Automatic annotation (TrEMBL):
It comes from [Candida] railenensis. It is a multi-pass membrane protein. It comes from the Eukaryota. GO terms for molecular function: L-amino acid transmembrane transporter activity. This is High-affinity methionine permease. Its main location: membrane. It is found in: Membrane.
Amino acid sequence: MSPTLIPSISTESDVYSHLSAKERRKYHKLSSLSCMSLIVNKMIGTGIFSTPSIIFQYCQGSVPIYLTLWLVGGIIIMSGLLIFLEFSLNLPFKNGGEKNYLLRSFPNPNGLIGCIYSFQMVLLGFSSGNSFAFGKYILFAFGYNSKSDTDWNVKIVGVLCISACIWLHIKYPNQGTQLFNFLGVFKILILVLIIFIGGLAFAGVIDVEDGTPVAPTLVASEIHQSPYSISIALLEIIYSFKGWENANYVLSEVSDPYKVLTVVAPLAVVVTVLLYFFVILSYLIVIPKEEMMNSGVLVAGIFFTKIFGENWASRVLPILIALSNLGNVLVVSFAHGHVNQELAKSNYLPFSDYFTNLNHSLILHWFITVLVLVAPPSSAIYEFVVNLYIYPGTWINILLTLGLIYLKCNSDKERWGVDQQQIQSNLQYQSIEDEENIEEDGPSSYYPDDADTSFTDFDSLLSQPLSSSKRQFSTPGLFIGIFLLANIFLAVLPFIPPPSGSSAAKSPIPYWVFPTVGTGVLVAGGVWFYARDWYNSFAYRKYGTGSPEVKYEEHL
């Protein structure tokens, strides 16, 4: 029996109230700590240990510009969080994240926006990058230094990493949750340690090895700043914060969604952003400017070497980073497995009936991750594919922001945030008959939507008012504008030719391939929608099989 498939029953529902204390324990969901860990583990991967030096190079060593860009990145992320907060508090508390928000914003043609989103989420929502990094740093900690991104030893360890995570989620879901809870706290403590060491170094308590740290030279650099380089630096910073939306993907699994959305998620994001900023300051305090400019991809390695010496840093640091990667793989596979299942329930995927089983949705995530890990023949192609998953998300964010603007401008027509007392319920109720099925067949066979993947929540939502109106929230227009402009910038910039002589210009893959392929994945989702509709209609007319049209989830 697969414990992962225990159904979602609201702790406020009639069904839950009739359960014994022993039975109720089955339906205990993700706690506040677990939700915070979902966000922290995804946001804190390898990036904070490596990309700060690369971003510093793009800023050409200008500390004021460098710190300003990190602050700007934090403001953009918080703007996105507020937009997601408004969507989530005005819609059902259910799995799916952006799928639900897009469906509410663009209900017609029915199914199109869901198919577009599903292609981006399933095909590009893999864990290959952090699985590979886990293998690389674990082997390095034991004396094996990989010289290539196509090293099969590293890939094999990466495959073992994602396989173990998926197995844990399927076989021992509670232990999987406990593990990523631990790793979330562990990551925060590591960043706090770096900040503490930086503070001691700044106060003169710890002597830093040779070199003049960057921080004392907090004057603006007179070096001419390239607008393109500054733009790329901001791009890298925003990408390094990826993961702030992770809890929104699994709201059906959360014990107190309102608390998570209004307290836990903002707290997790704010804490992580502040930790990032003070970690950056610690790097600047300890590491000389020349080394910061030329440290490559592991600035944390130089930081720990300056404090503890070469031997300690060369062995302990890779293990710390590998554990950070493991936490990322655990929470991404957990969240994306649930999103895959939700997309299948809404009939957006090929073979949707099969993937309504959560175990199968988790295995789908495993398959895509392993494919991306082992298939690319060269390091350049591998890096291209791994980084590709970020870009289409910018177009999704643009659509979401435009959708929210439309809903707010047409609030009466769309019933968006108008009636304070009749807010649609975000609780999913199950009937007593469903519970009897659970008792009889066991949780592994319970799929409330297997019989009809075209289910809709709309009618039930209208009939379930909430007693409290405190969930109402409206994002200030300033933050909507910031997030929209930032994502337009992120979407357009990769199409601009890089300056000659830059690393991007020297890449074996032309600069325009990255945004073109990323956009093409979204277009492929639209093609799938129309091709599927045409085929169903053709098969029905020609052979009398199926139905004349594909049925999708109705708008929320």
